Amino acid sequence: MNGSQDLVKQLVGAVAAEAGSLESGPDIAVIPPALYVGQVLESAGTALQVGVQNVACWQSGAYTGEVSAAMVRDMGCRYALVGHSERRQLFGETDEQVAQKVARVLESGLTAMLCVGETLEERSEGRAEQVVAEQIRQGLSEVGADQWGQVVIAYEPVWAIGTGKTATAEDAQAMHLHIRGVLESVNAPANEVSVLYGGSVKADNAAALFAEPDIDGGLIGGASLKADEFLSICRSFPAGA
Fold this sequence. Notes:
The protein is an alpha/beta fold. It has helices spanning 5-19, 37-44, 69-75, 85-91, 95-107, 120-124, 128-139, 169-185, 206-210, 227-235, and strands spanning 29-30, 49-52, 79-82, 111-116, 151-155, 194-197, 217-218.
């Protein structure tokens, strides 16, 4: 929940201006608060994709204050985050609600970025892989066989977000490899689903993370609010990956 009209002009404008010239050519999406989506779409042009941070469990109806996936698609967005750790922790979103949101996103023709990840307590108890596996299985329980091309997984270890603790590239790779195995277990094309890492990615650790074989990109948090930092992360993406 950060932003202003001035920030959109400065940040999105700067990123869009350079995005097309990046040699590695990664796909770049900006996912702002819903109120600024229209302005971001205008500033993004064709260089950037745009998404939203959350959608409703329903496609329409008497749900004052909610934003449906169909509305998001109507605005011209491509992506929707679902199940972000803050939505789970602060707003009590359950795996069942996450699955409903994923279904609505896919029905609308958008790509769902399903966020999964364990807390420090769950990791300390040795339950990290179990927790992540359950979030994936339940969150993707309503995905049809022809919809896997609309699914992206974002692994965000809650214990490594804004805490000063850092997951090593090896830690992240180990969980990403586990996630591939979970995808296989639910009959998903595991090597075709992008798996992003979202645990405090910064310019100084992005290259090491993106060099790992099962890390396909990043879900960038605080570093995305500074154009120079964000573009440095984009430049860290391996050429031709």
